[in-house]
Amino acid sequence: MRAGNRGRFGKHRIRQTTGHRVITRPSPPRPSTQCDARRSVDINRGRRSVETLTRPEASRTGVPVRILALCVGLAAVAGCGPKAAAPTAGTPSSAPQGVKRFIFITNGDDPFWDACNAGLVEGARRFGLEERGLRAVMEKNNGTAQGQIEKLRQYGSQSDIAGVAISVIQADNAAIVEEMKNLAARGVKIITVDGDVNRDAFRDARPYYIGTDNIVGGRLLGRAARAILAARGRTSGGYVQFAGFTDNDNARARMNGFREAVGESYTEVDRMPDEMDLTRARDNVRTALVNHPGLAALVGIWAYNAPAIAEVMEERGARSTAEKMLTAVTFDAQAAALERMAEGKIDAMVVQNPFEMGVQTVRLLRAMHEADDATVAEMFPNRGQPDGDLLTTGLRLIVPDTDPLVKPEDIDIDGYEYLPLSRFREWLAQYGLSSS
Q1: DSSP 8-state secondary structure symbol assigned to residue 322
Q2: What local confidence, expressed as pLDDT, does residue 98 receive?
């Protein structure tokens, strides 16, 4: 996702990926400090493609209603306040005395984040957070800018927050940027992951970004779409791109990259935001088909757009005959999208590596917290140069097992892995994942 840097096209290269399985045990609960019952997810979770899965366990400490009522009634005698049940150690709302937390704020709630969550677990194990008195915790945002703003403000009043990684939901939102800067002024380490701020306006809000080079990802999808359209005899036509927010940094970069790489023979007729509303996502596809008859392709930019596109195309018979065959290309690999590809309803998908995003998030925040400049320099060897503050985590192009219309030789972009659907599903199964 390199705004202002168009990346490069080059010889096709397939990157091999390896991994291993680890198992972690959940940490024991800490002594309770107040009458409270909460539920949370505790996560003791490089550029390298070592991808490992551990499943974070949800811990729940609750107090029955009758006991709470009795506790309130006898508080003056029994001292319930300081001795009642409290959140388990490492919950998003608290940590054991002396333990510092790294918080990962998502943009919304999507299966995409499950793989990132697993990467945080592995990163915590690999980089020794527990023995350093540190934890990593994922908090899922509600899909709004205000949700992220409120979380950032909340962390400013909590002394145990050592670092925050955030997938910024709106790149141009000055209020999010202000709260990021407020936390940094208090000594909290701040980075962006997956979704960045507008780099032209707000680059100083964070020192580093980890995630996909989204403009290259968009180009990869654009090249795939061009090959598929040519194979179907469509040498021109219009397309519509769908995303949660069209002013989000990663969405904007992907859409721009797609437009650049698919070529001038094909015309972008609309970009349609849905604000992460799944019903609206489907309605947008219906609207596009009505308003723009004769479209050549539909392009899904966020994970849930893929099944929405496939569902509506089936509903409207948009792939019922060779003459009506509408091309569908998408980003990310929800389980539902993978099933739709298996059914022949999605032609190609570009898949990110959220697991590695999680691993590298822990690595970087740990290094920043401990002033380990050698590790930071290893991760960002070009610091101080244009785009030297970006660490990219790789891309895959997933195609149907049977007669894919795009081949490796059709793609003149560097640094991605070409995988048939069945092989990608084997990789997911190896790590216990259903999506990526």
Answers
A1: S
A2: 85
